Amino acid sequence: MGDAPLALAQLQALHEQAAGGTLPVDALAASARTAAPPLLAALPPAFGPVLDGLLLRLESAAGFTDESCAVSQRDLLAALGQWLEKAELRLPR
């Protein structure tokens, strides 16, 4: 398990900052890619591609205002929040 709980806490903090409007979603995605590996190593393999897909969509949505984007940043942040909740539940204790 190692650093997985710390990585989860970092990702949760980044998510809260982005959801609160203090961190741009592209910065969230970049920071999440750096913080995620220890967490992903402790989770079932299916978690990795799902997180990658969410981060790719956040990066793509970053260039648009929320109103002009086909997929809203709020919806993507909500999906990331769900991913984090599921990751926390699946993290070995």
Explain the overall architecture.
The chain is an all-alpha fold. The protein is built from five helices and no strands. Helix 4 packs antiparallel against helix 5. The protein starts with a helix and ends with a helix. The mean pLDDT is 90.
Features:
mainly alpha, 93 residues, globular
Structural class: mainly alpha
Order of helices and strands: HHHHH
- The global form is globular
Let me know the largest β-sheet: none
- The gyration radius over C-alpha positions equals 13 Å
Helical fraction equals: over 70%
Q: What are the low-pLDDT stretches, counting only 5+ consecutive residues below 50?
A: none
Count every helix, treating DSSP H or I runs of 4 or more residues as helices: 5
Number of strands: 0
Rounded to the nearest angstrom, the distance between the terminal CA atoms is: 8 Å
Mean pLDDT: 90
* Beta-strand content estimate: under 5%
Describe how the helices and strands are arranged.
Elements: H1 4-19, H2 25-35, H3 37-42, H4 47-61, H5 73-90
Helix pairs in contact: 1-2, 1-5, 2-4, 4-5
